[in-house]
Amino acid sequence: MRNRCRTAVLVITLASTIASAKAGRDACKTSTVAVFDACKASASSDRSLALGKCANLTDPAARKTCTQQATSDKRDAAKSCEEQRAFRLATCKRFGPAPYSPAIDPANFVATIDNPYYPLPPGTTFVYEGQTADGLEHNEVSVTRNTRTILGVSCVEVLDTVELNGELTEQTLDWFAQDKDGNVWYFGENSEELAGGLIVDLGGSFAGGVDGALPGVIMKAHPAVGDFYRQEFDLGNAEDLAEVISLDEAVTVPAGSFTNCIQTKETEALDPSALEQKYYAAGIGNILTVDLETGERLELLQIKTM
Predict the structure, then answer these.
(1) Given phi > 0 = left and psi -120 to 50 = alpha, else beta, which region is 116?
(2) Stretch (H or E) spanning 273
(3) Which residue, among 41, 61, 65, has the nearest Cα to 51 in the 3D structure?
C-alpha cells in the first residue's frame, strides 16, 4: 500500500530501497524462496511422520489406505506451497526489493485510537452475525480497558470471540495502536481455535518484535484507492494484506444504512484463495465482511457500550 502522506513510520525510505537495489539484494524474493523451501520440507516431514503412523497399523487394508492418504496429503501440501510462492512473488512486484522494516518509535504513538474508520473506544463491543454453510456465526469484538506494551508502544487490547451455533470456536486477543498521523497499527494477536471447549490450534499468533514478527497497518489515516499494505508480518505464520478498492460504497446491514464506506480486499499469503471484502463506515469501523469464495456475509448487528 502506498500512502499519500509519506510518513517515516509507514514508508520504507527511498534511501533504503536504493541501497538494497545497489547491493543487488532483493529481500522480498529471498524470503519468498526461503519460506518456499521450508514449506516443501514441512510437507515431506509431515508425510514421513504419517507413514510412520501407518506402519503401526495391523490391518493391511487400513495400512495401505493410510499410506495412500499420506502421499495424497503431501501432494496437496506441495501444491499449496507453489500457490503461496506465486502469491508472494506477485506481492514482491508491488512492494519492491527492500526489507519490510517499519520504523516503530514509541514517541510517535498516541493513547487514543480515534481513526474515523477504525475507532476503538474502550468499553465498546461490536456484534456481528452471519449465516455460513456450517450454521449461524456470532462474532463479538470487545474493546477492553486493558493495554499491552509491544515494541515500547502501549497497545489497546481487543477481545474477539466467534461462536458457531452457540459454541465458542475462536477466541483472540488483538493489540492495536494509533500513531500521531492517525494510522492504526496491528501489533499482534494471541489466537485460539477451540473444539469442544478445548484449544486445538494457536496458529496465527504473533507479537511485533518477537522472532522476526513485525506490526502492520490495519487502517490508514488517509486511505486512497490502490493503497496496498501489510496488516501483519510473521513469515510463514501471519501474512495478511489489504488493498483499498473504493471510498464511496453504500452498505446496508442490520445496524443501519451507510454511505461513503471504504471497501478493501483482504487476503493472506498462507492461503491466497481466502479472499474477503471488508467495508468500513466513518465513526463506526467495520460494518460488513464478505467472503468472496462463498458469498457469506458477516454483518454488524449492533454496538454495545458499557
Answers:
(1) alpha
(2) strand 271-281
(3) 65
195: its cell numbers: 473444539
HEC secondary structure over 163-201: EECCEEEEEEEEEEEEECCCCEEEEEEEEEEEECCEEEE
Q: What confidence tens digit (pLDDT) does each residue in 3-26 have?
A: 333 333 333 333 444 444 444 689
Question: How many whole angstroms separate alpha carbon 33 and alpha carbon 128?
Answer: 39
Q: CA nearest 112: which of 173, 174, 178, 159?
A: 178
Query: What are the start-end ranges of the H helices in the chain?
Result: 14-22, 27-55, 60-95
Alpha carbon distance 208, 244 (integer Å): 24
Query: Does the structure show a pLDDT above 80 at 192?
Result: yes
Terminal Cα distance for the chain, rounded: 36
* Cα–Cα distance, 2 to 232 (Å, whole number): 16
CA neighbor of 66 nearest in space, from 49, 79, 80, 78:
49
Helical (H) or strand (E) element with 245: strand 240-253
Block residue for cell numbers 470471540: 161
Among 72, 38, 64, 17, smallest CA distance to 236 is for: 38
* Residue 62: φ, ψ to 5°: -65, -40
- 128 forms bridges with which residues in the sheet? 139, 300
Cell reading at 197: 471447549
Cell of 260: 461513503
* Predicted confidence (pLDDT) at residue 129 exceeds the cutoff of 80: yes
What are the φ and ψ backbone dihedral angles of 60, each rounded to 5 degrees?
-60, -40
